Amino acid sequence: MGSPVVWFVVALGLLLVAALLVAALAWRRLRELRVGGIDVALRASKDGGRGWHLGVAHYRGEEFAWYRVLSLRSGPNWVINRRDVEIARRREPTTAEAYAMPAGSTVLDLTGPDLELAMGRDALTGFLSWLESAPPGRSVPWAS
Fold first, then answer.
1. For 123, which of 83, 101, 113, 119 could close a Cys bridge (C-beta 3.0–4.6 Å)?
2. Mapping DSSP to helix (H, G, I), strand (E, B) and coil, where does residue 17 land?
3. CATH hierarchy code of domain 37-132
4. For 76-90, how does the pLDDT look when each residue is reduced to its tens digit (9 = 90+)?
5. pTM
6. Count of CB atoms situated within 10 Å of the CB of 43
């Protein structure tokens, strides 16, 4: 058996390598998400309305994919299909909420996925345009 000092140095080295790996993965995720994404804070209403989470969202056709910033998950944390969502109300954030979301945010209370989204003016304009540009709900079959 080695001395306790050797084991301590080995354990410390392994801990340092693990910390560097986690930091590299987090940096990679942030870098990838920032390309073409918008800053959006999200709060799940079914959780009692607790806890805003900062994230980056991307439009993927019919879907609005939201990625939590502080997560090592490879896929989106929430996916919202525009056919399933409606805006129940719009409001300004409270003073306490404003610290946990992008500057100048408006809060949208959504029905369907039962979420609240907070985004700045430019992101809000894009989100509303995306919702309104949905194709008609019914598809008409081709006549033969």
1. 119
2. helix
3. 2.30.29.30
4. 899 999 888 889 999
5. 0.70
6. 20
